[in-house]
Amino acid sequence: MEKRYGLPTAICMVVGIVIGSGVFFKAEKVLQATKGNMPLGILAWGIVGAIMIICSYVFATMATRYEKVSGLVDYAEATVGRRYAYYVGWFMAVLYTPCLVSALAWISARYFCVLLGWDITGGACMTIAGAMLCLDHVLNALAPRQAGRFQVSTTVIKMIPLALMAACGAAVGMMNGRMAENFATMSTGAISTGEGLMASTVAVAFAYEGWILATSINAELRDAKRTLPRALVVGSFIVVLTYILYYIGLTGAVTTEELMASGEAAAKMAFQRVFGETAGTVVFVLIVISCLGTLNGLTLSCCRGMYALAVRNEGPMPELFRQVDPVTNMAGNSALVSLGLSALWLVYFYGANVGGPWFGAFSFDSSELPIITLYGMYVPMFIQFMRKSTDLNPFRRFVMPALALCACAFMVYAAFAGYGVTVLYYLVVYAAVMGIGWLFDRRKK
């Protein structure tokens, strides 16, 4: 594919994929996990933000050394080996990215329904989610340049409501005393600080996740070895600062009880209280647009999933999925599979988390647990990177990768502490998906 993207698009991939849904969608779940303990909730946002910065720094160092087709898969191949890279790419293409895309399609539809006052659990919301999923895949498959421009514009737009709430919400909260009240009020219900922190950390992980997918356009970046590292580091700091300031600002506009009751309705209520009924609604429209921007960024990466395998002659029918359309300069067949997988996981997400549970014990949150799995898959890469990068100084070779290893271990522990036995049922599904990947392993044949 051609070198069509520059630094602004790369930064907007990092910021635009991460910011735009989770900060609104997961605020409710974080407070529910901590039973209204606002300081503990902010601590969860800070911990996962630090993990994002540490891991993105290590991958930024890798990005200065390796430039091939699809960032993360390239780094897995360069550090651990070709076989491991295949399974990382398979997991990303079949489970991780389609799960995030499907969740974002539903979240975008949910906020659209809140804006119009419609039911967020019924068939209308799911129909809108399916339509958004299809339209975004069409945009990325047939007009990738326009998809990149859309990513930049929606990233700029989404920063408006976040910045306004961070500044104005905090100011209003300090004047009316609501912020101090929210921070002072602790739940009377018994809760283990560790238990609440672990559960909220896993929830926050979704809000921060997606930044690694910016590496999927590695081969399409101009001067990628300089552009991508800058985008990862700068974008990560922007995300962490924005999230924490927004979360603090939100406490100045609504009570913890209101936020725990309904995150998306409380977000709309907060903007209307601070900016008035009409202005608050207009700002909420920008939130819907920001969710669509996040969906677009994830779809942009998801469409390249099977292509990243096929160009290595891996996976099913590589000769088909490595084809690039001469008109759009896009891997259309790969995008078509992305649409099918995302639609499949959308049905699962609805059945497991909204309309169900349809799948009994196998009903898990597909927007969270695949994220933790990826942190586990980083571990061999960081270890091998420390072993092989003999030309780097000690800070970049040992200190930051070691911190990244600790961060990954913490995320895995948080998943087991927060989800318990549900993790085991998820691992059965994960094993089944990876088993299918093993069947397509061309080297095994």
From TrEMBL:
Keywords annotated in UniProt: Membrane, Transmembrane, Transmembrane helix
GO molecular function, one term: L-amino acid transmembrane transporter activity
Protein name: APC family permease
Domain of life, source organism: Bacteria
Record organism: Dysosmobacter welbionis
Matching InterPro entries: AA/rel_permease1, AminoAcid_Transporter
Major subcellular location class: membrane
Compartments (UniProt record): Membrane
Pfam families according to UniProt: AA_permease_2 (PF13520)
UniProt topology in membrane: Multi-pass membrane protein
Transmembrane segments: 7-27, 42-63, 84-109, 115-135, 156-177, 197-219, 231-250, 282-309, 330-349, 369-386, 398-417, 423-440
GO CC, any one term: membrane
